[in-house]
Amino acid sequence: MPEESILNDSLREIVVGSVSGAIGKIIEFPFDTVKVRLQYSRSLSSPIFTSTLDCITKTYKNEGIYKGFWRGIPSPMIGASLEASSLFFSYKIAQDLINISQGNRINTELPFGQRLLCGCFSGITTSFILTPVELIKCQLQVDNLKVGQANYTSLGHVIKTILKQEGARGLWKGQTTTMVREAGGTAAWFGCYEYTLDRFKGDRGPDYEYRAHELLVAGAMAGIGYNASLFPADTVKNVIQTSETQNDILGRGHVLLL
Fold first, then answer.
1. Comparing 248 with 116, which gets the higher pLDDT?
2. Among 19, 57, 126, 213, which residue carries the largest CB count within 10 Å?
3. Ordered structural domains, the chain, with CATH
4. How many Å apart are CA 145 and CA 62, to the nearest integer?
5. 86 pLDDT band (50/70/90 cuts)?
6. Which SUPFAM superfamilies does this chain map to (predicted)?
């Protein structure tokens, strides 16, 4: 019975995570593009953009709406389902394993601290899927900003170029910083999400059915917690993943510290 329950719960988490991840990626992608471009610009000795508004204005003027703000979306759209489902799947599995190890029913609610650990485990697991997805995404997002270099023609072109120049390991460039970001960021995500829901539930008991607006608020707080917790690690990751060589990484790291 426990094994069947774990399987059913896990399948549900995969489906829900896949759908929510794909939809969320479409909505958030233009904002992510501006963020990555600003991080890339700041790592250069002569920044391309002076502000967020300057980045938005120049991107729209030079590249238009889709090519400017949604370029590179095929990669995260393909990876969004895997990413989100992996997060929820591994988070649920971690909770179930802790409950089983403690002799509890698998749906027993864990203390807040243990849920944070489950979130950390979920982030570490998902980072191995997320690194190549974000690498391709970041390369396409800043591709048009690189002067004197041939632009990528497609997602497949990026993958072929990386494999040719760096081999399969090249697809996991930035893995360490992605893992650090995801371990802390995902713990913060689930922590804020669970804490907000706990506040809404109050003393109403474990059978309380959350309302739609409560789930939306919890999701919003989770997003804020994720992005605010380890944003410096995200900056370093994007600088690494948009660089061309090791010397390029070191040089940009020096610029970031100034």
1. 116
2. 126
3. 2-257 (1.50.40.10)
4. 10
5. confident
6. Mitochondrial carrier
